[in-house]
Amino acid sequence: MTLQHHFPALIIVIFLICAFIMPLLFRWRSTLCAPALLLVHLLALAMAVALLVRLYAGGPFYYHLGNWAPPWGIELKIDFLRVYMVLILVGLGLWIFVYALKDLAHELKREVTGWYYALYALLIGSMSGMALTNDMFNLFVFMEICGIASCAIISIKESRECLEASFKYLILSAMGTGCYLMAIAMIYMVTGQLNFQLIREALPAAAGLYPNNLLVATALIIVAFGTKAALFPLHVWLPDAHASAPSPSSAVLSGLVIKIYAFSLFNILFFVFPASFRQAVPINEIVLWLATLGILFGSIFAMVQEDLKKMLAYSSIAQIGYVFMGIGLNQPTALLGGFYHILNHALMKGMLFMVAGVIIQATGRRRVKDLNGIGHVLPLVMIAFTVGGFSMIGIPGTGGLISKWYLAEGALLANRLFFVIVIVLSSLLNAVYYLPIIINAFLNPYEGREPVKPVSRLMVGAITAGMIAVIFFGVYPKPVIVFLKAALAAVIGM
Amino acid sequence: MPNQVLMIVILAAVLLLAAARFFPRLQLRTVLTLALLAVIGYFLLITVAEMPLFGKAVNPAHNEISLRYLEQGVAETGVINTVSGIITDYRAFDTLGEATVLFVAIAAVIATLKSH
Amino acid sequence: MEDQITRLTSRLVVPFIQVYGIYIILHGHLSPGGGFSGGAIFGASLVLMALAFNLSAGVKQISHQSASLMESGGALGYALVGLIALLWGGNYLANRAASFPLGRAGELFSGGAIPVITVFVGMKVASTMVTLFYNLIEGEAKVGDPEKPGA
Amino acid sequence: METLKNLAHNYYYLVAVVLFVIGMHTMLTHSNLIKKVIAMNIMDTSVFLLFVAIGYIRGGQAPIMRDIGDGFYINPLPGALILTGIVVGVSVTAYALSLVVKIYRYYGTVDADEIVEIRSREQ
Questions:
Q1: A66 lies in a domain?
Q2: pLDDT, tens digit, for every residue of D59-95?
Q3: Which of A218, A414, A425, B27, CA to CA, is 20 to 30 A from D75?
Q4: Does domain D2-122 sit in CATH 1.10.287.3510?
Q5: How far does the CA of residue B21 sit from the closest CA of chain D (Å)?
Q6: Domain count, chain B
Q7: A2 belongs to a structural domain
Q8: Are B41 and B78 within one domain?
Q9: Higher-confidence residue: C3 or A220?
Q10: Which of C71, C76, C91 sits opposite A6 (nearest CB)?
């Protein structure tokens, strides 16, 4: 057996090991911390690519931890979609980390940077675990790691808003995991299984005998993942948490963390519940309508925000709605759009939060009204903001258009014209709040006496890379689309 | 069904009375929350009534998985405490995750307390 | 806290609690208990020390440095046991499949990697209890009386 | 009548569910932050109770294979899972309490409503 066989487990474990070493390393040689974490990211990226190569050669496969086959042990499943998520997580995790290297010096006390790196490694590692695991209870454990780590990277900043936001987030996310654990209990009670595939096989028989149990479990699962991923009525924690956090944390929370919960919900809905069960209970419809409400209300709330980061946070509620819409429409093309939007939104929202971080650091301004003429003093950064804003609106040449296009096409194919209108309407709403900022930033003169503080080149470089990526995935989406089509075909059997 | 309706009415009444007794200044929001919880509680109750009966050996949860743990666990893991065998061998990855949860709690606590 | 009875009692009891904690950790694979329960008992004894005497006496028992070393070491050791299994030809965290010697069931030295893992987990849990307690207490001690609201 | 009989038979599950609802209610409606943390624990504990009750078989022994008696054993898997769940609950509680300590330091209160009041007064 070669080492390559163990890559699925190693991707997760090297992040954990790196996090365990971090406090000691920080005490001993604090300058080595950042390179170590960078190295781990690169290693994980290489492993994910190797997994992809192996998938192309041999198709989906499983990894049995401790050599115990599923009913007895825990299993990791490796298929195209999961590897796609891991690639996004690790790749964009690396990108945001490069930005964080310089940004953190301004936002955190020096002595907690080591802990921040440890938490960051745990966050990325646990999210990779959530993407790969094929076991209900294992998913719960990783969810809990991810939940605490994502609260901690908010509360690590010295401000009382962060503490409150983080507490609110922690309580709601604890409620979410509590509901999920209850759902596991109810499912285990009637099926006796914990593995996704085996539950799926046992569910039809159980559904006949104990319909209520499964109904309640389904409701609890939607509440749990809806809370974690900020599905519309359960989003109350998100604006405060994402707006008050340090900029790299905002980027990783908005870009990656809420997506992985959406992906887990997708996994459970499509791989745990059999298709017959999904038709009997209108889960997809519920998710679809909540997503629609989220898209509209998120955009409307974003329009009235004065704080730049808060506006971006509300916009995240709208954008995660697109991903859920893809799941809810239950149609391959729409799913394709939703999955492409996971990548796109992670890129553009990550970049926009980085831009916000740079603006706050350079000028100390964070109110939308104060951004007049800022394009004259921070040209490159504001061009990146323009690209991100255009992508949010869905202007041709940016990634946002492509994912919305596929979503709309999927809605048409499913004969749901209403949702096409929702998508168009939300694009208009996005334009209402992104365009004025862009226009004011470039056309108005910059007022302000205080000099603009210099910004690290690394941070601007990370933003530029993000901008190029957004344009690249807008102009040349074909490889990812082809990949996702094949992946979804293999998974859904369309 | 009438039984269930009666039950929910009684439950809601008791909850509301208790609430009125303990919170003299009862607000609309509280009442609404209580009503919502009563509905949730009702659904959970009918679920409980439908669940596999407690303590029966024929319940679906007691299937071939637990049998294998009990019958072959000693031979396969070499320990006689089956629960220990499950958490550190069959499902050892969960326990690694659990140790990690402890670690992340420490990291979060220290980071929060040190930075403020 | 200056109370003779508490001090004397806890001084008497603490060694026994610690031995009991270690016993529970080491016999985790033979009797009810294991790394978590044993570690919690051991950690509780150190917390008791700090409560009965004062913070500094507790700190003398286990310093910040060694606590954080134990924490990282416990978790790291667990992860590395998994990696050893990988070197010996099993999957990650394998026990029998990685040909750890299982021994005769029911004896103290049996179960391959299981006792090792249990000890690491015990270490981790004990140090976590202590670290959490001290950090919360120190955070509290620094507070004194709360700053004026809005200050 | 069948329903009530089942309810009475499943009293462990019933108590677990009632605790779950109590925990959820307290968590969402009470403004005291410490109470929220306690409610979180109640909610977790209710799920643990439910899980352990699932694993129980009437008359079964604890699954330790030292003295093979005449009886049979209970299902060990839920117990093992809950061991993990308990530790997770402890971790979340510890972190939440550390946040409360710091919030108290900033505001001098642990009541969410009062905190909102203090903040609105400042603006």
A1: no
A2: 888 888 776 666 688 889 998 999 999 999 999 999 9
A3: A218
A4: yes
A5: 17
A6: 2
A7: no
A8: no
A9: A220
A10: C91
Q: Do residue B51 and residue D83 have CB atoms under 8 angstroms apart?
A: no
Contact across the interface for C132 and B80, Cβ inside 8 Å: no
| Interface predicted TM-score of the whole assembly (ipTM), two decimals | 0.93
Mean pLDDT of chain A: 90
Cβ-based interface (< 8 Å): residues of C facing A:
65, 68-69, 71-72, 75-76, 79-80, 82-83, 85-86, 89-98
Residues A165, A241 contacting (CB under 8 angstroms): yes
pLDDT of A494 strictly over 80 = no
Q: Does residue B107 share a domain with residue B72?
A: yes
In a domain, B58, yes or no: no
Residue A287 lies in a domain: yes
Flag whether pLDDT at A471 surpasses 50.
Answer: yes
Examine residue C66 and state whether it is found in any structural domain, yes or no: yes
Contact D121 C148 (CB under 8 A): no
Tens-digit pLDDT profile for residues A67-123: 888 888 899 999 899 999 999 999 999 999 999 998 888 888 888 888 999 999 999
Which of B79, B89, B106 faces C131 most closely, judged by CB atoms? B106
- D50/A182 touch (CB, cutoff 8 Å), yes or no: yes
Distances, alpha carbon B10 to alpha carbons B19, B42, D14, D34, in Å: 14, 11, 16, 31
Neighbours of A138 (CB within 10 A): 24
DSSP state string for A7-58: HHHHHHHHHHHHHHHHHHHHHH-GGGHHHHHHHHHHHHHHHHHHHHHHHHHH
Tens digit of each residue's pLDDT (9 = 90 or more) over A1-21: 578 888 999 999 999 999 999
Answer yes or no: do B68 and B46 share one domain: no
Structural domain that includes position B69: 64-115
Tokens at A333, concatenated: 């093309």
Residue B56 located in a structural domain: no
Range of the domain at C65: 4-143
Q: Does the pLDDT at position A350 exceed 90?
A: yes
Q: What is the residue whose two structure tokens read 């710091």? A: D102
Q: Which residues contact A377 (CB under 8 A, 6 or more apart)?
A: A362, A363, A446, A452
Confidence of residue B26 (pLDDT cuts 50, 70, 90): low
CA distance C44 to C20: 11
Give me the number of domains chain C comprises: 1
C-beta of residue A168 within 8 angstroms of C-beta of residue B31:
no
B26 alpha carbon, distance to own chain's centre: 30
Among candidates B59, B107, B116 on the partner chain, residue whose Cβ is nearest the Cβ of A119: B107
Q: Which domain holds residue A389?
A: 282-494
pLDDT digits (tens, 9 = 90+) for B30-86: 777 777 778 888 888 888 888 888 888 888 888 888 888 888 888 888 888 888 888
Query: In chain B, whose CA is at the least distance from the CA of A187?
Result: B61
Residue C15 lies in a domain: yes
Chain D residue whose CA is closest to A181: D47
187-216 of A, contacting D, C-beta below 8 A:
188-189
Give me the number of domains chain A comprises. Answer: 1
In whole angstroms, what is the distance from residue D19 CA to residue D22 CA?
5
> Which residues in chain A touch residue D27, judged by CB atoms under 8 angstroms apart?
171, 174-175
Q: Which of residues 5-64 of D touch C (CB under 8 A)?
A: 62, 64
In angstroms, the CA A89 to CA A257 distance is 9
Q: A248-257: per-residue pLDDT in tens? A: 999 999 999 9
* Residue position matching structure tokens 């943390």: D37
Alpha helices of A330-453 — where are they, by DSSP H?
Answer: 332-363, 374-377, 379-393, 399-413, 417-443
- CB count within 10 Å of CB C151 equals 8
Asked if residue C149 belongs to a domain, the reply is no
Distance from CA of A375 to the nearest CA of B (A): 34
Chains in touch with C (3+ beta-carbon pairs under 8 Å) read: A, B, D
pLDDT at C77 over 50: yes
Say if D67 is an interface residue toward chain C (CB within 8 Å).
no
| Closest CA in chain B for residue C104 | B78
Considering only CB atoms, which chain C residues are within 8 Å of D94? 132, 136
> pLDDT at position C147, please?
44
User: Is 90 exceeded by the pLDDT of residue A416?
Assistant: no
Q: Tell me what the pLDDT averaged over chain C comes to.
A: 82
* B15 falls within a domain: yes
Q: Which residue of A has its CA nearest to B43?
A: A216
